[in-house]
Specification:
221 residues; mainly beta; Leucine-rich repeat, LRR (right-handed beta-alpha superhelix); seven-stranded parallel beta sheet; two-stranded parallel sheet; 4% helix; elongated; LRR_dom_sf; leucine-rich repeat
Length: 221
């Protein structure tokens, strides 16, 4: 645990004596520019990893793949390029990627971006990443999951992408985006009442909250 310090570099094999014993690594709020991510697969018991609020320029997502004991992963506010996808993390409950540069083609979250295989996944944080759109099947679908897409650049909530999640009672937060709130979101106001699974703080470009819209405005859609 090294937090709120001036640590800048963690060299190769600096933590090799902990491979088989470390369960939690806290490196939050330092000045880290270099970390040996290639060594993470050696931490067989690692359940918690927090390297948030540092100065990493690149984070390889596949460095975490296969960490079967990992439950919580915090990479937020590095303003880093996050390259690759997250998968094979069967016990993951929290992943926080907020305030980064996800290195996405056309600022679009691709299919299978976060496919951990975990039935315990509860929070995916993707706030403040300039995300323009999300492709269908980008994330695990787990009942009770919360996906935070606040303060991105979404112009709509595509039915093909989000309906499977909302039908599975996944909770979506999308405040601070650029939602036009035209006929493209009419599907949220159907008899299945999927809007209930969208946060009440989510609003349109004119400032009106989705939950305050009159469903009758979509009758001609």
């Amino acid at each position: 645990m090294i937090e709120f310090s001036n640590l800048e570099v963690i060299e190769l094999q600096a933590l090799d004596s902990c491979y088989e014993t470390a369960t939690e690594i806290y490196l939050y709020w330092n000045k880290i520019t270099s970390f040996p991510f290639d060594e993470l697969s050696n931490f067989s018991k690692l359940s918690y990893f927090n390297i948030g609020f540092n100065s990493l320029s690149m984070i390889p997502a596949d460095a975490f793949n296969g960490l079967t004991a990992l439950e919580e992963l915090y990479l937020w506010e590095n303003h880093a390029n996050i390259v690759g996808t997250f998968k094979d993390l069967p016990n993951l409950s929290v992943i926080d990627l907020g305030y980064n540069d996800l290195s996405l083609t056309n600022n679009t979250i691709p299919t299978n971006y976060i496919k951990t295989g975990s039935s315990d996944l509860r929070h995916i944080y993707l706030y403040d990443n300039n995300i323009v759109s999300v492709e269908p099947g980008a994330f695990d679908i787990v009942e009770g999951l919360e996906i935070d897409m606040d303060h991105n650049a979404l112009s709509t909530l595509e039915e093909a992408t989000w309906r499977p999640y909302l039908e599975a009672q996944v909770y979506l937060s999308a405040a601070g985006n650029q939602l036009g709130c035209g006929c493209d979101i009419a599907w949220l106001f159907g008899e299945d009442q999927l809007l209930e699974h969208v946060s009440p703080e989510t609003y349109c470009t004119d400032g009106e909250f989705l939950h305050d819209l009159d469903p009758k405005i979509f009758d001609l859609c």
